[in-house]
Design goal:
By secondary structure, the chain is an alpha+beta fold. 50% of the residues lie in helices and 23% in strands.
Amino acid sequence: MKTPKRLRTDRRASLVLSALVLIAAFCAVLITIWFSLRGATEQNQNLQQIADTLRNALMLLTVVLSSYMLYRQSRALDETRFRAMTENAHHITLIFNPDGSHRYTSPALKLLVNSARARQVRPDEYIHPDDLAKLQKAIEASMHTTDDIHLDSLRCQRHDHQWRTMEAEFVDMRHISGVNGIVANLRDVTEQREAEQSMRILSGAVEQSHGAVMITDKNSIIKYVNPRYCQITGYTKEELIGETARLLEFSDTLDNEQRGMRECISVGKSWTVSMRGTRKNGESYWQAVSASPVIDESGTLTHIVVSVEDTSQQREIHAQMEQLAFYDPLTGLENRRLFKDRLDQCLKQVRRSKQLMALLFLDLDGFKTINDTLGHDAGDELLIIIARRLKQCVREEDIVARLGGDEFTIILSNLKSNKAASSVASKIIQKIQKPVEIAGQEVFISCSIGITIAPNDSMDANILMRNADLAMYRAKDLGKNNSQYFTDDMNLENEARNGLENALRAALTEESFVVYFQPQVDISAHRISGFEALVRWQHPEGDLLPARFIPLAEETGLIIELGEIILRKTCEQMNALHEAGFTDQKVSVNLTERQFRDKNLINMIRSVFAETDFDPRGLQIEITESMLMRDIDKAIDIMQQLKRLGVSIAIDDFGTGFSSLTNLARLPVDTLKVDHRFIKQLTASEDENGITSSVIALAKHMRMTVAAEGVESPEQREFLRQNHCSLQQGFLFCAPVAIGDLIPHLARLQADLKSQDLSH
Ligand code: C2E
Ligand code: MG
Ligand code: MG
């Protein structure tokens, strides 16, 4: 440590003084000795007195100087001590004179101003101008109190121009020797203040946070909870603080989640999990919990910060979305999507367990009719009841799904044998058959079930679905209300069907269809009254009858294109017949349900008429009774549009479709064609005869024209004639023939009718 200058000066002065005192004392002693040797003369006595006086004066001077020097030395020592305290401290010490002027700066200022002449730098050179008044005020204030004056913040500029925040303490040390002024200690608190500020922001944020926060010590004792935590749990801060955090509680019975958390936290890692919590009111809720350990410098766990999110609502929404995405909203059964997943899982299990699994494909019989006649609400109600019944027929672990419409699938897992599947299927068939009361009516429904077995039939989900579907169609073909196991021949049949479909598509592009005409005769008028157009497919294997391809065309939608081809060919060829002299005869064209309900039907007919220059009055449309069942009002509307076009309408295969009489009366129909099955059975049974005569009577009563089809024998012709049904069609008169062969047939037929060979 360097000795202060003042002390060094004082030391030199005291040496000089001491020397002076010694010299003075020595002189006084010399004078005294000298006088004592010379003897006491009067002159000597005077000199003696002078010497005494001198010696005494010197002694006094010595005492005074020594005291002064002692005083100076003690002051210098105080100052040395004070400096020793201040000059090695990190904080900046300033000393101000009582008049406020600056006197001293400790070396610590160098850290702030970074200058070799730091101690000469005046406070106003680095203290913020706005804070200088504050500084002066503090100096003054400190002189009027015995307490220290504290300044919270004094801005001082650092050498890099950055403003630092200093905390300052002012002490009045005017009366302290070695200081004699106002001492100000300045401490740089910038970082501390910033830290405090961020702490304030942070704790404010935690307090205000929407996320719930809890802080515990390492023993899971709750030290802090924010308001949101209280809100979620229903407890108050007071009730929680000091308690053990239950979710962090470790016991031997803790679940896997908590065990995982403990392991994580013990190695200083954060941990996140979704777990159940209980509110104060006992209500349970789902929470997403994240726990992070707080580790001190020595690496010891001190606290655990836990953030909690109440995810109950999210879970509920998720569950609802899942319900919508994976479940059928009407019946609550699994939907197609989830079913596919389940099927895959079950197949995996089959692979592992080597057990059997059955997939059942179920389709309701005649559901469409119920839906159409009783309405969609009734249809929905029925589906709900069916779903419930299906569930009752299977075990808890079996899966029942609704694929859409009236199609259901069932997975029966862990089966002991194939037979078990058919016994479940029979149980289902029995249960579904039971009458249901819907909309005040007793409804009967049945179902057809296809069954396929994994792994026997396949281990591929798509193949199994197709197998079960094919087996279900076989069950339908076999008269419905039964179940069928998948067999390999169904695949062949399916392949054949696919082959036929492809061939039909090709035939449509090539228009390899021909229209046959079958005359209709009026036996009373002895004339040909009209023709029915009947399509044939010119297939490489020979002409195919409509029964072979019309249902497929209907199913695939190809009938729309085919129907247009048939109508165009019919109109063109009828024009040729007109030219041959058959101008009064109408031609009947058959429509399937899909054609009849096609939105473009009227436009299509109109444009074919225009293209072929055909008179609409020459066309009769044949539709069947069953086609009218679904949405009768819409059907009437379509029929009226057809009538407006100028075409007439006939109900084909009449007597088999169970039309209600009320509905029948509303239909804008011109002709009823009594189904050939009634005609076929004529003469064989009195009852059937009765039905046929009733049907004819009914048509007459409704003021409709009646025609009979499938007339093959003179007996049938006679019976019909007696029952006033003179319009007849059948092999007895003429089979359907292509236009090329028709004219000669017609000439003969006409002649026969005229000669009354066929009329009698
Ligand atoms: P349909 O409209 O009832 O036609 C009458 C069917 O009875 C025709 O069979 C005809 O050949 C057959 N037939 C006529 N006279 C007799 C007879 O004396 N005895 C017997 N047993 N049968 C007779 P085809 O041509 O095989 O047509 C079958 C069905 O296919 C038709 O029944 C009709 O529903 C449908 N069909 C035929 N052609 C077309 C068509 O161009 N378009 C549409 N959509 N359907 C058609
Ligand atoms: Mg017909
Ligand atoms: Mg018919």
